[in-house]
Design brief:
One of its GO terms (molecular function) is aspartic endopeptidase activity, intramembrane cleaving. Keywords: Endoplasmic reticulum, Hydrolase, Membrane, Transmembrane, Transmembrane helix. This protein is mostly helical and 442 residues long. It has 2 domains: 4-33 and 46-362, no CATH class; 364-394. It is 66% helix and 7% strand. The protein contains 15 helices and 6 strands. The chain has a two-stranded parallel ribbon. Strands 2-3 form a two-stranded antiparallel sheet. α9 runs parallel beside α11. The termini are far apart. The relative contact order is 0.13.
């Protein structure tokens, strides 16, 4: 039996584990912004070997979701969810969970190692890393760069630690290790996934609003899969952590929050941060690093506060009625209304709907025209050089043919020794033969 104190601690832990990856993932996603053409790179010297290079080639790759993806997301999600429900219903769930554990362990190694590097970069003093050597892997083909990556000994140590932790989780299914996986997945997903516009974000949240309501209230599918799915796709906390610490709990009961309730609103919060960055850069870009996080964040702040409010509402209703609640029922309207309300108050509603992440990647018109002109001149020069080379080649071939036609052949007298150099033109050879005949008659 859980105590009121234990329950409130559990709810507070879930709230904390939801907010931290959204905040961290959103800020980290700024590193993946593509620097527009004509914007100078940061001149700040990179002291830590764990820091990424400031070149665009090393910026983190992100996957952008479009409106068509947002429309289909609930459809594909429903298919996967119902498929898992049928598998757990008609097959041995132990074997299914073994396969899922193996799959998520492979993903977890990379996610944990990456999250570990990000944390170490933030908390470890630079002076402790001065002696760490940095190595670089560069793959090219015909002078074109295909892939580049850098690593240090610290990366190797963190990779080994993530492998050991993964093995520990696979053997014990410890809930703390499971939470570490879940938090790492959430941070990386928010960092690497992005919405291309607010229209896409609102379509996605609205679609998943009905998805969550239907599968939780309309059927037993969502709850059944959540209970049987033994993989790090959720964060959990004991309902009475004090009894768990003291070892007095006979059976540990957990309260949980799915990663979807963190990641989906999280990428919308990250979109708000990108919009804040876009607006701040448009207003003033002088003397600022393009990927700096030092700018006003009204949309990000309001959306994050709305997310916390929505999650608190979910927890209160769940605790009051003692029934599972679809978190997106409260989170989706909270996030959408926060963005719309902030834009309405600031008089930026038009800019909000016109904004697209592709807009940040577009080159200024003058820069694009200059690049096109330069490219056209380069291609024209290349064509002229090719024509010139072809003409020189033809002249050489014609000269060679003329030399063959005008060449004087060597006439060798068979009576002369082979070692003598009797080389002359055909007419000269004929004169010599006439002189010999005259000498014979005399």
């Amino acid at each position: 039996m859980s105590t009121p104190t234990g329950i409130f601690i559990a709810y507070g832990a879930l709230l904390t584990m939801a907010v931290i990856p959204i905040y961290a993932g959103s800020l980290t996603s700024l590193r993946s912004l593509k620097r527009p053409a004509g914007v100078p790179k940061s001149r700040t010297k990179i002291l830590s070997p764990l820091d990424d290079s400031d070149s665009d080639s090393e910026s983190a790759a992100s996957e952008s979701l479009s409106s068509s993806d947002a429309y289909m997301f609930p459809v594909f999600g429903s298919g996967v969810l119902f498929g898992l429900y049928l598998l757990f219903r008609f097959l041995n769930k132990d074997y299914i969970n073994m396969l899922l554990t193996a799959y998520f362990c492979v993903l977890g190694i990379a996610a944990l190692a990456k999250a570990g590097v990000d944390i170490t970069r933030k908390i470890m003093p630079v002076r402790l890393l001065k002696g760490v050597e940095k190595y670089k892997i560069l793959l090219t083909k015909e002078g074109k760069q295909l892939y580049t990556s850098s690593f240090t000994l610290v990366h190797g140590i963190l990779l080994l630690a993530s492998i050991l932790l993964t093995g520990y989780y696979a053997l014990t299914k410890n809930w703390i290790a499971s939470n570490m996986f879940g938090l790492s997945f959430s941070v990386n997903a928010i960092q690497l996934l992005s919405l291309d516009s607010f229209k896409t974000g609102m379509i996605l949240l609205s679609g998943l609003f009905f998805y969550d309501v239907f599968w939780v209230f309309g059927t037993e599918v969502m709850v059944s899969v959540a209970k049987n799915f033994d993989a790090p796709i959720k964060v959990v906390w004991p309902k009475d952590v004090i009894a768990w610490l003291l070892g007095s709990a006979e059976k540990v009961q957990f309260t949980m929050l799915g990663l979807g309730d963190i990641v989906i609103p999280g990428i919308f919060v990250a979109l708000c941060l990108r919009f804040d960055h876009h607006q701040a850069w448009k207003r003033s870009s002088a003397g600022r690093d393009y990927r700096s996080s030092d700018f006003p964040k009204p949309y990000f702040t309001s959306c994050l506060v709305a997310y916390v409010s929505g999650l608190v509402t979910t927890i209160v209703i769940m605790h009051t009625f003692q029934a599972a609640q679809p978190a997106l029922l409260y989170l989706s309207p909270a996030c959408i209304l926060s963005a719309l309300g902030t834009a309405l108050v600031r008089g930026e509603l038009k800019e909000l709907f016109a904004y697209s992440t592709e807009e940040d990647d577009k080159e200024p018109k003058e820069v694009k025209e200059k690049k096109d002109t330069k490219k056209a001149k380069k291609e024209e020069k290349k064509k002229v050089e090719e024509v010139k080379k072809e003409e020189e080649k033809n002249e050489e071939e014609e000269g060679a043919e003329a030399d063959v036609e005008e060449e004087d052949y060597v006439a060798v007298d068979p009576e002369e020794p082979k070692g003598s150099a009797a080389a002359a033109s055909p007419k000269t050879g004929a004169k010599k033969r006439k002189g010999k005949r005259a000498g014979g008659k005399a």
